[in-house]
Design a protein that fits this description.
By secondary structure, the chain is of the alpha/beta class. Helices cover 35% and strands 19% of the residues. Strand 5, helix 4 and strand 6 (134-137) form a beta-alpha-beta unit. The longest helix has 17 residues, at 56-72.
Length: 170
C-alpha cells in the first residue's frame, strides 16, 4: 500500500528495500543533522554536547549529527546524553549536571521531543544556568512556543531548525 507522510523524518524510512512504497514530503533527519552541523561550524564551535530523547527520533537524529560532524571534520563531541523515555524525578537535573561535567562545551545540540526540551530548560533555570548553554534544536522545537513559554531566559539565543514551509492557496 503506498504511503505518503507529511511529517515522518526518520532516516530509516529512506531505505527503499524495506519501505518500497513509502514517500514523504519533508526531508529526513539526516538533512536536518547536516544543517545543524553547518550551523555549529558557522558559529565557530568545535566542542559540543548532544542531547537526545530516547527512541527513534532522538537517537537517530543525534547519530546522523555525529556522522555528519565526522564527515565535516573539526568538531568534537564532548558527550552524548540520552533522556530516558520515562524519566524519574530529578532526571533532568542530572542531565544538566552531566552537561556541566564538560562545561566548556556550552553548545548543546538537541534532538528531543517538546516535553523533554521544556524539562531541560526548566532544569537549567532551576540550576541558575539560564544563558550558560547555547542550544541548537531540531524540528521538534522548530518555531513552537510551548517548549520555551515561561523559560525564555534559558532558551535565549537558541537556534532551531525547521524545514521550509509554504502555504498552498486553495
Amino acid at each position: 500500500i503506498p504511503q505518503i507522510s507529511y511529517a515522518s523524518t526518520a532516516p530509516e524510512l529512506s531505505d527503499p528495500g524495506r519501505y518500497e512504497f513509502f514517500s514523504r514530503v519533508v526531508p529526513p533527519d539526516s538533512y536536518q543533522a547536516q544543517a545543524m552541523v553547518a550551523v555549529v561550524r558557522a558559529l565557530g564551535w568545535s566542542y559540543v554536547s548532544t542531547l537526545a530523547s530516547e527512541g527513534n527520533y532522538g537517537e537517530s537524529g543525534v547519530e546522523a549529527f555525529v556522522h555528519s560532524s565526522r564527515e565535516a571534520g573539526g568538531l568534537c563531541i564532548a558527550q552524548s546524553i540520552k533522556i530516558p523515555r520515562e524519566p524519574k524525578p530529578g532526571e533532568f537535573a542530572k542531565v544538566i549536571g552531566r552537561l556541566m561535567e564538560t562545561s566548556t562545551a556550552r553548545g548543546v545540540v538537541l534532538f528531543a521531543n517538546e516535553d523533554d526540551i521544556r524539562r531541560v530548560l526548566e532544569a537549567a533555570t532551576l540550576a541558575n544556568l539560564s544563558g550558560h548553554f547555547s542550544w541548537v534544536g531540531s524540528d521538534s522545537w522548530g518555531a513552537k512556543m510551548a517548549p520555551v513559554q515561561g523559560l525564555e531566559d534559558a532558551a535565549d539565543g537558541a537556534i532551531t531548525i525547521l524545514p521550509k514551509r509554504a502555504s498552498v492557496p486553495g
